[in-house]
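In response to a reviewer's request, we include the raw inputs and outputs for one of the modeled complexes. The two entities were modeled together in a single run.
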Amino acid sequence: MALVFDIEGDMALFRKPYTTTSMVSYPFPPPTAIAGLIAGIIGINHEASQDAKNARYWEKMREVQVAIALLSPIRWINTAVNLMKYKNSNADMSEHIQVKHQLVKKPRYRIYVQGGEIYKILKQRLEREEFIYTPCLGAAYALADIKYHGEYEPAEAEMDSGFNTIVPGYEGLELDIVRSGAVFSEQIPVQMTVTRCLSHTVQVYYAQPGKAGSPLLYLRNQGALQSNMINGEKVAWFNAW
Amino acid sequence: MAFKQRREYLFLYTVKDANPNGDPLNENHPRYDGDTAQAMASDVRVKRTTRDEWVRSGEIVFVDGEPKSLKTRFEELKKITGKSDAREIMKQCLDVRLFGVTFALGKEAFAWTGPVQFKWGRSLHSASFEFVQGTAAFATERGGADNRQRSFRNEYLVPFALMGVYAIANQYASQYTDAADEDLQRMLDGLWQGTDNLITRSKNEHKSRLLIEITYKEDFNGKIGALDDKVTLLDREGKVMDREKQKALRSLQEVSLDIGALLKSMELKQEQIAGIRVITDGEINIIQEEQLKGISSIEVR
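The model returned the following structure tokens for the whole complex.
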């Protein structure tokens, strides 16, 4: 079975970790952000109060699979925020730094989850519209609203139909760019260790929703990618954590 | 004692002939949403307002706004609190208990998520932005004709904006920072008085108008969410204003606040709500004021 819920908010910042002084965002939450969101909803603490590096919830994410769909057109806010420059080696905070921010504007995403030991408790929390830690879209000020759709039985997907979600480019995957119209791509983090080290990334492909709705992404060959039909939507799963 | 009940806040304030929050990347132009022309204020701006008020009232505040190094501030706090352990000292600071901290000094590195999270504030209407110039006070020291020539000062201001801010206080995060019920009370006071006390050139005049605090029962783990999206600004006759009319607003007397959607959300959650607190400045015109009085007393400040 698979759980389906939407997350939305005024803004989002899923920071690209390789940027140094600018806050540049992915256009959607990478799976690593979804893991944190799930942990927040069900209430597994990251234990960063002990050590800032900690992300202990990864211990509980084994066998969980997620899929992510974009529901709103991607628009950006470009601005700068006056912050303290606390990272000087001599801990000099007297200097302020105007950090450039790129934020996603009014985003809405659909998240699909299946498998793993957290599944049952996540379902319970979503059904009761509960969360333990306050959910956000990347940054703490980008507070998220969660709308639960329900639990669905994943069905076999037809080979020929288009994908509603972001598609991870696993081995053997071939895009059908002509049929898709336009395809965008990002290299995104998929999994972290319990001490917040990046363990692997994947190249993903997606179609951008426009005013007319969400276009579909077509493949010529899906290779090792796992897919399902869930509530009438064709979903591309990230491999299990 | 960490607080045990989740809370949600809606805070409205007006800005008149001032800059709610300048964007350093854009010549200090007020932050705004290019699609809707709503003025915006970052969460750090709102928290700065609150912290400044706490500093004035003698609370221990970690980020006191003064230009000094983390090391210096930490040494100061050691003296003030008489403690030496970083975590213990951080728990003495009101802003850390409420807003959290990322601490990295020497070998000590830890992060506490604050129980209180603010969204960026937004005006409830499209605003105008004006560019004004003035003459600088002094000439430069360059000699010749230059020292009789004063340069110009450029600034942006918003003639009028009614800003809406949403915040949520999470009881589970408070267990890590030890934020107490009294701390939330201090936040509410700091936010209200701090906004009224924003008396600098670019911030005069800011005025607090409405604060609604929803306190939930102990076992409630949900929220209404985005309270700022549940109120709508209408004209005095209760009619929707087009964008041009919204931009031409210059005072609170021209508008009324429709809180119908908010009241409906609160009604749906009434079994889970332990209490509602409402503070107004007595000037804001709320269409459903009678209904609001039915569920809470209204404190006028």
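As requested, we also summarize the result in words. Chain A touches chain B through 47 residues (CB under 8 Å). The radius of gyration of chain A is 18 Å.
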